[in-house]
Amino acid sequence: MNGCEFWIYLAILAGTTYLVRVIPFVAIKNKIDNKYVQSFLYYIPYAVLTAMTIPAVFYSTDRIQGAVVGTFTAILFALRKRSLTVVAIAACVAVYIVESFMNII
Amino acid sequence: MKDFKEGLLAGIPIGLGYLSVSFTFGIMAVGTGLYWWQATIISMLTVTSAGQLAGIGTMIHPGLYMEMLISQITINIRYSFMSISIGQKADSKFKGIYRWILGFMMTDEIFGVASSRKSVSRSFFAGLCVFPYLGWFLGTLIGALLGEVLPASLLSALGIALYAMFIAIVVPEMEKSTPVIIVVIVAIILSCSFKYFPLLQGVSSGIAITICGVLASLVGAIFFPIEEAES
User: Fold this and answer.
1) Is B186 on the interface with A (CB under 8 A)?
2) Which of B122, B165, B179, B196 could disulfide-pair with B224, CB 3.0 to 4.6 Å?
3) What ipTM was predicted for this assembly?
């Protein structure tokens, strides 16, 4: 990627994100009553985040064993309603412990 | 002024959370070949975890402008929904130019805090945005600069942080709603297909995420339409 491409990519990335946030904020003042559109918008974040996470999370660390333990740690902490930060830190610690242990043996 | 202070306080835990998550983003961005200042500018102008992560994944390939556009719209479309929702709760002074400026900071966590209130004033929302923005900006800067200094074992462990945060957003909703579980399972099957089926492996990750997200949500909307506005 050359310098010029970076700025084009940045403009698309930041511009799209901004407009997606702001246009509905400014334009829509009354409620959307189509339940299918409403439902689609409700499911979108969970579908997208899931597709981004699985299977990519298993390749996000040096060893797949560490990532698997980290993933289950995250799920466990999320089930216990911990905050985003706590879940993230717990997963990192789990990965660190498993991978350090594997590097020793 | 009282509202602004209240917002500032409510934003502190989000800011701390963002500091750690954007720290990882900074490391990952530099890992894909971006300069530290590029990673920082991306965070300063965008402020979105999933979108930025997918964005740097697209940036490493040359000329995929249309893919960047489509994948960003799909990944970030949830913000439109949040903006509509907060728009319903905004008080009479929170309009016009204030929406154009403050709408920039509509993130999952800021939405979460703001939507828990009966009425949202522009002062409260402005206060709420301060620490998350600083955390997101500074975390990226520090991560991008220190990424190379940290030991490999620590970097490896931090690689999972953003994904863990996504898990923390999705899993509690799965507990509340069976349709969300089904949507998640459909998304997993589709996403794994793109990763492991030789025929589909040629599809780049941004488009694959877009297709998975839209198809899984369509399944949810068609088979399990919600009667009342949730979230």
Assistant:
1) yes
2) B179
3) 0.88
